[in-house]
Sequence to fold (89 residues):
Amino acid sequence: MVGRRLLVVEPYRLDGQTRDRLVTTGRTFVAVDTVGAGEGEYVLIVQGSSARLTPETKNLPVDTVVIGIVDSVHIDQRCVYAQQSESQE
Fold:
């Protein structure tokens, strides 16, 4: 896997009580980054045999792959996460 960037990713879930924010699951995975994600970004991952279905990973022994960067998450017409652009920081 020479030349592949690996990221430690931590899954999030919707807060079951308030349903107004995302909270960590407390688990972590090592994932192959196929999209150039940066530190602190929310990403979409796939695991298992689906992780080997991308052109970049089809011949690699991988189990978790980053396949997208999340811009925002909306639940019941409410935004529970929105990526901040550099101009907003």
Summary: The mean pLDDT is 89. DSSP finds no helices and eight strands in the chain. The radius of gyration is 15 Å. Residues 43 and 69 are 4 Å apart (CA to CA).
